[in-house]
Amino acid sequence: QVQLQESGPGLVKPSETLSLTCAVSGYSISRDYHWGWIRQPPGKGLEWIGSSDHSGSAYYNPSLYSRVTISVETSKNQFSLKLTSVTAADTAVYYCARVDTGMDLGDFDYWGQGTLVTVSS
Amino acid sequence: QSVLTQPPSASGTPGQRVTISCSGSSSNIGANYVYWYQQLPGTAPKLLIYGNDQRPSGVPDRFSGSKSGTSASLAISGLRSEDEAHYYCAAWDDSLSGVVFGGGTKLTVL
Asked: Which residues 14-73 on chain B approach chain A with CB closer than 8 angstroms?
């Protein structure tokens, strides 16, 4: 049973860096698949942030490209998200997910429960 | 403004069949697979349909997906109260080199 669990600070100050980790159990992250992040502002829809595989082959949302990094840490079977220079607009529930690349990168077959990150001073 | 367009709301009574549309363009739906996600209140999204019309294991056959040109649809037959949720379509976009989502449709079971 594949399980994903997000962790990280629930409150980040404006202009600082948002850092989240997604621990994966039940599947080796060093195998195939991509590992991705999706966010959802309160009361709004889903926004794709990006995804990466264990080799560092990554794709990012063009609107976030200059601020985002997704890293896969095979030794810990986890992957992480870093988003720099955050503003209030980055307040959202952040979900991590496994991406089944059998078709393309839109197939998020397992999701974490999500973690709310608020950007505020 | 989402790249994929969905109606903000839909409704039906128990037992009815409802459809939710998702409109895109030649760079996303027209060229790539469509996915549908169900988000029950207060929970993470769940994959409902992949590859335009495939159901993951465990998803009831009451849910079906289809695609034609640059549009896709999700159909739910035999509507049940537990189907009340938000539904999102998604696809890879070749122009943006990224995944795009629809704005979501809130389904109400009357």
From this structure: 32-33, 35, 37, 43-47, 50-51, 56
